[in-house]
Design goal:
Shape: rod-shaped
Distance between the termini: 81 Å
Largest sheet: 3 strands, mixed
Helix content: 40-55%
Radius of gyration: 32 Å
């Protein structure tokens, strides 16, 4: 069963409560005799595995499965350029 402490003890005697948490692992804090809060040691979350790198060439191939011809590229370039 976890140790218990009151809100007043938490406010006035925090070092004692801190030692209880380190010893017991968990302390239930009561407010006017009713259990209200649970204090426990902080354990940082383990970092997730590295995300897989994005394959930009595969994404490009999914939108344009085969390259356009040199003539089509020149025509597209001229079209985008307009009258400049």
């Amino acid at each position: 069963m976890p140790a218990r402490a009151t809100v007043r003890e938490l406010r006035n005697q925090f070092p004692k409560i801190k030692r209880l948490i380190e010893k017991e692992g968990e302390v239930i804090v009561t407010d006017q005799g009713t259990p209200r809060y649970r204090l426990s040691r902080y354990s940082p979350a383990k970092p997730d595995a590295e995300p897989t790198p994005k394959d930009y060439m595969a994404r490009l191939r999914s939108h344009q499965p085969r390259p356009i011809s040199r003539a089509a590229a020149a025509a597209l370039h001229d079209l985008n350029r307009g009258d400049r």
